[in-house]
TrEMBL record:
All copies of domain FAD/NAD(P)-binding, residue ranges: 8-321
Gene3D superfamilies noted in UniProt: 3.30.390.30, FAD/NAD(P)-binding domain (3.50.50.60)
Taxonomic source organism: Ktedonosporobacter rubrisoli
Protein name: NAD(P)/FAD-dependent oxidoreductase
GO MF, one annotated term: flavin adenine dinucleotide binding
Cofactor binding note of this UniProt entry: Binds 1 FAD per subunit.
Length: 476
């Protein structure tokens, strides 16, 4: 079949973060693009993920600030939390973000329905047969529901319904201490819910540097959140009006009771009904298998975003979309994905922000590795805002002290990631960052202070001191 006989150059399955970006990029390059979603455009990030969670976090932050305003000399008389109203605010944000995303489908054919593969180049959308030279699968993920006895009977919340609440439970047990459990745990606690987080591993946010997990644990506990680690949820049962969760911790079984239960124990790929088996496309519980060009085991079928597992972030799906579109439309000059500089942020308050390697990872990959840490309290802007908890840790490697990783806890720490990511992307050294004038008083001056301290305590600082003292001796 020649290229012109295909209905489309590229068909994208899934109209969420990754799918919308892929559609926009491909259409802007002049390809004939079809975008198919099973129900609506926007995906998890818009309706049940980033957008509603960050809106809720924003409201919770205001409540927290108001409740702590007395230390600034401001008298408040208690805050009434009206969840129905907050819900209206959240839905309003979703609507406005959705409207802004509309440009993503300019020059793209959009269809909705149930789609499955008939062959590597043919799809069935309900009863319509569609042919496409290449296809990108970007159907996202859904929450893992763990095998906990009694769960189905008793009921539970996940990210798919928690943002619909118009009344808050008085108490909530959250199973899972990853980003979802921790972000929502703090936000809901600030809105007045008694929160207990049950986390399997020995610390919350186990993908972060241990110092980051420890700092966020301290913050949560200081705000009244109970954090139970090394604890596995075993079974649930009703206890009067409450839900009782039995947790195994070492040899002990401990019972926790609350009004509601929220599950946040990870994700699994949305692949049901796509007919991947028919084409022999390899897929595990973590996701569709792809090579570094984001090709599945069928080379004209690509996959990206949550459905391939790994780094489950909106910005990663968007990055991968650019790579997959290029590889689908220009197979003669394929590009590999590169995750060397991959920033992410957990939106607790203070935020936990990370890019690149931890100190331990850097030691395995580089020579002459060291880490420097600047307390967040040393940043003047942090002092003016009365938000001094946290630190900036930079991981440096090589003779020239290139930044290979950064780990931060601090209010708006995520906003500093862009600068470090750019520096890392272009292999800048601490001297390059130090030589760049930063506006005062912003939090970014903290980065400059951190690289300044790094230079003072490093080889360059030692050399500078030697040169200057030699010069001064000669001038005597
Ligand atoms: C509570 C929460 C908070 C989060 N916060 C952040 C954050 O702050 N920052 C961040 O970077 N990431 C965050 N994430 C992760 C982020 O939402 C995902 O990584 C991102 O949405 C993945 O994009 P995607 O395109 O792969 O999937 P999605 O955006 O979910 O899109 C998948 C699309 O595929 C469609 N679909 C599903 N099955 C089919 C099918 N069979 N046929 C056709 N279409 C189908 C769906 O309807 C959906 O529109 C959060 C996630 C959650 C749950
Ligand atoms: N700010 C952000 O960028 C952001 C925010 C929220 C979610 N996300 C994305 O969404 C994804 C999913 O988040 P998540 O928090 O659901 O998953 P996760 O996999 O990151 O964390 C879930 C945690 O629950 C633990 N767990 C699993 N089963 C358990 C059990 N039975 N009992 C106790 N603990 C158990 C796991 O060990 C893990 O530490 C993340 O990978 C993240 O990339 C990102």
């Amino acid at each position: 079949m020649s290229q012109t006989n295909y209905d489309y150059d590229l068909t994208i399955l899934g109209g969420g973060s990754g799918g919308l970006t892929a559609a926009r990029v491909a259409a802007s390059l002049g390809a004939r693009v079809l975008l198919i979603d099973k129900e609506r455009l926007g995906g998890d990030c818009l309706y049940t993920g980033c957008v509603p969670s960050k809106s809720l976090i924003h409201v919770a932050q205001i409540v927290h600030q108001a409740n702590n305003a007395a230390r600034l000399g401001l008298t408040t008389h208690g805050i009434d939390v009206d969840m129905a109203h907050i819900n209206t605010y959240i839905q309003g944000v979703i609507k406005r973000v959705y409207e802004a995303e509309h440009i993503y489908t300019d020059d793209v054919t959009v269809k909705f329905g149930s789609v499955s593969f008939q062959s590597p180049t043919a799809l069935l959308l309900d009863s319509e047969r569609i042919t496409s030279r290449s296809t990108i699968i970007v159907t996202g993920s859904h929450p893992v529901i763990p095998q906990i006895a009694g769960l189905a009977d008793l009921g539970y919340l996940t990210n798919e319904d928690v943002f619909q609440l118009t009344r808050l439970p008085a108490s909530l047990l959250i199973v899972g201490g990853g980003p979802i459990g921790v972000e929502l745990g703090q936000a809901l606690a600030r809105l007045g819910v008694r929160i207990t987080i049950i986390q399997g591993p020995e610390r919350i946010l186990p993908r972060e540097d241990p110092a980051v997990s420890a700092a966020i644990t301290d913050v949560l506990e200081s705000e009244g959140v109970t954090v139970v680690t090394k604890a596995r949820a075993q079974n649930v049962e009703r206890s009067g009006a409450k839900k009782r969760l039995i947790v195994k911790r070492g040899d002990q079984f401990i019972a926790f009771e609350a009004d509601e239960l929220l599950l946040a124990v990870g994700r699994q790929p949305n692949v049901d009904g796509l007919g991947l088996d028919k084409l022999g496309i390899a897929c595990t519980a973590q996701g569709i298998q792809v090579n570094s060009y984001l090709q599945t085991t069928r080379k004209n079928i690509f996959a990206l975003g949550d459905v391939i597992g790994g780094y489950l972030f909106t910005h990663v799906a968007a990055y991968q979309a650019g790579v997959a579109v290029r590889n689908a439309l220009l197979p003669v000059s394929k590009k590999k994905v590169d995750y060397r500089v991959l920033p992410w942020c957990t939106f607790t308050d203070p935020e936990a922000a990370r890019v690149g390697l931890t100190y331990e990872e850097a030691q395995q990959q580089h020579r002459q590795v060291r880490a420097v840490t600047l307390p967040w309290a040393d940043i003047d802007r942090a002092q003016t805002e009365g938000a001094t908890t946290g630190f900036i840790q930079l991981v440096l490697a090589g003779k020239k002290e290139e930044i290979v990783g950064a780990h931060m806890v601090g209010t708006h720490a995520g906003e500093l990631l862009g600068e470090i990511a750019l520096a890392m992307q272009h292999h800048l050294t601490i001297s390059d960052m130090l030589a760049t004038i930063h506006p005062y008083p912003t939090l970014t001056t903290g980065l400059q202070q951190a690289v300044f301290e790094a230079q003072l305590s490093g080889r360059q600082g030692h050399t500078n001191r030697r040169i200057v003292s030699t010069m001064l001796r000669l001038l005597k």
